[in-house]
Amino acid sequence: MKRILMTFTAVAIMTGTSAMAADVKLPGFKKQATPEAVVSEHLKALSNCDFDRIMQQYPEDAEFMLPNGVWLKGRANVSTLFIGFCKDRKDGGLKGAKFTNEEVNVVGDTVNVSWRLDADFLAEPYKGADAYVTKDGMMQAQVTTFDTTQMKFKK
Length: 155
Hints:
The chain is an alpha+beta fold. It has one domain (2-24, 31-150): Nuclear Transport Factor 2, Chain: A. It has five helices and six strands; from the N terminus they run H-H-H-H-E-E-H-E-E-E-E. The chain has helices spanning 2-9, 18-23, 35-47, 51-55, 75-85; strands at 63-66, 70-73, 98-107, 110-118, 126-135, 138-144.
């Protein structure tokens, strides 16, 4: 599990484990009206590090595909990514980073986004892409290129 977590946020989520996921109380669900609304809500919630808002979108059988062919299955396991992401930078997280969509392409219920991540603690913007597979107003699956080992942090 630690290898999986390091892929997403390197040091930020290094302490994430299945036990941590089991200890976290997850919020109820909040469906969105369209696939675009699901993704918009996700990126706003992530940019604000609003853990409850983020996790309201993920159903119990959600899946998250990370670089190097790593998969997380289930809402509790997916939550470990966002627990680490939303930590303060001094604690290894990326709280305060803001996502900006650069290009969006919608194919059915899948929203493909190339994005830029900006933060005061980054030496330069970090760019990546995600494919968000929505179903019934929820975030069913996500494929991401996000890899903090490729980010350039200020010294």
